[in-house]
Amino acid sequence: MKNLINIKYWIFDLDNTLYSGQTKVFSEVDKKMSAFISRKMSVDLIKAKEIQKKYFYEYGTTLSGLMKQDDIDPHEFLEFVHDIDISWLPKDIKLKEELIKIKEKKYIFTNGSHAHVKNVTKQLGIDGLFDGAFDIVDANFVPKPHADPYKKIIKKFNIDPSKSILIEDIAHNLEQAKKIGMKTCWLENEEAFAKKDANKPYIDYKIKSLPSFLQEINILKAA
Ligand SMILES: [Mg+2]
Predict the structure, then answer these.
(1) 134 and 171 both lie in a single domain
(2) Separation between Cα atoms, residue 78 and residue 99, nearest integer Å
């Protein structure tokens, strides 16, 4: 943990990382994806869900599959699926306090959209605390875990990977981060897909809670 006090670039995944997966925020997005596919392809929700998951596992995101197989307009998709009401999501005071204490650069790296970043961070009370966000449009619709967006985010924000860390709930998304020289941190969770690579050697740190982890680092830095 001690060598993390020298990190200059903190890179956070958004969904199920900046908020706990137990909040079910992402299920709202998930439901909208099924609804979108159901409408576009005139199939029932059960069939739509099947297509959605098949694409997710095959292409990294459902959107990638829809673009490759069905010629879907990505902007229409993103706008529809991220239009969710999460006013029930409580503010995360502890996360806010710890993020404020981190004076180095902080970025969000997501397979979602900028609108979703805004909606979620605002609701959590942590909007305005980041130096930037990199979304799926910035990635030219090539999602994590493909190598491409990792190279792009570094370029966009002039990040030195050897002084950075990526924090993620999907273990497999940490592989490329490690390859380009970042430290990697997996947020423990019980979702089968997210945890299937949790024991891979490219994972440097495993944590149970993001706010508590940041608090620990901030205490070390202050000492
Ligand atoms: Mg995530």
Answers:
(1) yes
(2) 27
